[in-house]
Amino acid sequence: MNSKTFSEGIPLGKIAGTPIVLAYSWFIIAAFIVITWGPTLMDAFPDLGAAAFALAFAYALLLLFSVLVHELAHALVARAFKWPSTKIVLNLWGGHTQFDNFTVSAGRSLVVALSGPLANFILAGIGYLLQPLTQPGTPGSALMYIFTLTNFLVAVFNVLPGLPLDGGRIVETIVWKATGNQDKGTIAAGWTGRIIAVGIAIVAVGLPWLRQERPQVSYILITLLICGFLWMGASSAIKSATIRSRLPGISAGKLMRPAIPMLDTATVATIEQGVPQPGQQEVILQNASGTPIAIVDWQAATSVPANQRASTPATSVSRAIDPEAIVPEWAQGNELVTYMNTRGGTQFVVVNTQGNIVGLLDQQALIRAVTGKATP
Description:
It is a single chain. With 376 residues, this protein is an alpha/beta fold. The chain has helices at residues 3-8, 26-44, 51-80, 106-130, 139-158, 168-179, 182-210, 217-246, 252-255, 268-274, 298-302, 333-342, 363-371; strands spanning 9-15, 18-23, 85-91, 94-99, 257-263, 282-286, 292-296, 318-320, 326-328, 347-351, 357-362. Strand 3 (85-91) and strand 4 form a beta hairpin. The longest helix is centred in the first third of the chain and has 30 residues, at 51-80. The protein is elongated.
């Protein structure tokens, strides 16, 4: 395991070839369960004493096991469709399976998503069948009951039709099939996820307050935690899909500012004479072999006294550029974003099919186009 793996959590090994990582944030929910359930179990089983907190921790572990089975179902079904998963992370919010980028159909995406809740339904069924084998009124019976009920509720909760829940894939698939656009499906499922988050908060907390009931603080905290998770996950899905939907219309040729190439032996006066509209076009200096090496700073160039411009090298009023930061004007979408993210620098020379310099592309222009927001 590398240091990056340890930075996000504790590696638990691999199951069926998929790495399992226990995020440090899981201990927050484990502590919450122990603190809130410990006293309740102590009241229910006075003979346990402080061991009631150990029983509460056992419940936290059973919940962790249920989430692990849920995520493994996702990973294994996805693998059956040759959709590779890189790891499973168990965290404060439950867990998630991280997949490699892979093109998948709407139907298969839905099957992979619903495999998780199905696994929890199966665990709930197993718990229900084992319940009669435990002695009623004992800690073991209580633990089995909680395990069964939790898996049933987790399964039902996850099939609610809104992202980031697995059931959100139902909405996504319906819209995807109807429009032929996955991003529109994701955005629709994200909005239903937001509606579900608000609905849960109203029903679970708002209505009791209107009836002048006072829910326990732990109940309110759990509800708000769940609703907050749903809202953030839904919002993230909407944002990601919105960005993806913009990518096909983004290209280096559309975003670039026009540029004129000139030899690095040019002077400030030469540049002024060779540029039809000074300041409206970028000037990129290149060496004798045609490699771009610098971008002329128009503000610095115009600050040179008129009687000195013929003797002032253009390189003295220029800023260096990575000679390998070159993109073709036809580069677009995810290919363009990936390339610019993997290269150093913030400005890229744009070339045409003949390899001639035709423009300059700022990273900030790409960010604005992708996010739809102005950059500082």
